Amino acid sequence: MPTEVVMPSHGPTAQATPKGNPTIKKGVSYDIAVIGAGVGGYVAAIRAAQMGARILVIEKDKLGGTCLNRGCIPTKSFLSDVKPLYRIRSSSLYEGKEKLTINVEKMIARKNKVVEIMTKGVASLFKSNEIHWIQGIATFVDPKTVEVLTNGKKDTYRANNIIIATGSRVGTIPSLSIDGKSLLSSDDILDIQKIPKDMIIIGGGVIGIEFATIFNALGTEVTILEMLPTIISTEDDEVIRGLKIILEKQGVKILTDTRVTGASPTKNRVIVNIQDYSGKEEQLTAETVLMAVGRVPYTEKLGTEKIGLQVEGQFIKANARMETNVDGVYAIGDVIGKTMLAHAASAEGIVAAENIMGKSREIDYRKIPSCIYTFPEVASVGLTEREAGECGMDIQVGMFPYLYSGKAMAIGEPEGFVKIIGERELGEIVGVHILGEHATELIGECLLAMHLEATVEDLGEVVKGHPTLSETIMEAALDWSNRSIHLLRKG
Length: 491
Ligand code: FAD
Ligand code: AMP
Hints:
Structural class: alpha/beta
Strand content: 25-35%
Bound molecules: flavin-adenine dinucleotide, adenosine monophosphate
């Protein structure tokens, strides 16, 4: 972490310390009240304030919600810290590497510092946008009134519109209770003091495999238990296969078709009961168990039933305009469970804010990317090849392996590929799937291409700097029409 951060001379400085909350005006009716200041809620509040709305944000915990405090940012801070360790340990170039260790206390302290800077940034943005915010638990009284409980004291606030952005919390399996000691949630593990010798991760979704990457790099023997036939089951089949091979090569053990039915901590180890697809039961043990079986919407104490809010499963139901069934009440982010990702929550927040302020916007989930920060990364947007086939689309696929990229080879990252799925006749970009170093950055240009309705051929015609990883996008796009320069000729 650099001690001095170079900042532009304009715009909000991330390090600026807020000088306190603008005075909350009692009895004033706000244009919009936002419940929850995660990446959904705080972005919605800022966008509506930019458009002239008077806003009140109510947050029961810390500004920034899951993403800043317990999700995206802390995990990416850890992944960045352990990556050099992983690279050095897995290379034959470096000598004396057996002695290399990481100072876990400092790693956690750096993560905490990053989180502090980011959350202070949100407070500064609120101040500069004249957004009022209060700490407390919000409960609906009626569709335009919330009661807020702060330190045992209750106040009520009125707003013409209310945006619910209350997010999600860690999910568990019924027969298992997280004790925060050896059976941990993704919240607990962010402050783990001692690197365990071995760890079982229950759930091979995004959160599970990112923590597997972190702890594998730290030297822990990691086993992932996943009840479905594959890890990261929503990704393209080739990406799933490729990443599984890479993770296993890195030393992560992956047991799929393996359902965890219970776990009980004993003095030194946690016993985990598993059941395979045929129903056969077995026990495994580990020093630490991480629960990563998904997240559940957070609606506790919100009083949704008081205003007759419609729910789907446990999630609040909202349409593409982010409207709920109750007039003037909108819902965004993890609590609606459409795409439980930070950038989706923010995009939904902007749609809600703009609709309230008189625009007419709808969210387009087909153009929201998914990013996984393993070594190497995974990024995708649009349909998988299987989904395109199931929709009966006439498609053509372009592929380019990292192995044939000069940049990927030069930086010692030859694993992975870019796969572009395009509609055969007109070349509409249907899906892009990248497994490889910096995939999460590379997907950006594909998103822009999709946004501008460019074709696969357009992606192939852009002249790229050399050597860059972005050349792999161009080559995969060229391969779509059998014109890749750096692939051997087919047939
Ligand atoms: P949240 O961020 O959960 O915010 C909701 C806020 O509402 C909370 O602060 C909560 O305290 C508050 N609240 C709840 N109820 C009330 C109430 N009644 N009154 C007042 N306040 C209330 N996504 C990515 O895109 N990229 C990643 O790399 C990524 N990594 C992740 C890693 C982990 C370990 C986890 C757990 C998640 C990760 N996610 C990632 C998912 C991402 O964090 C969430 O999708 C995102 O935070 C959802 O934002 P939100 O605003 O809907 O909810
Ligand atoms: P996600 O929903 O992406 O956060 O991933 C959570 C993963 O946990 C999914 O792939 C689920 O299939 C998996 N999962 C849920 N319950 C269990 C269980 N009891 N045992 C093993 N894996 C589970």
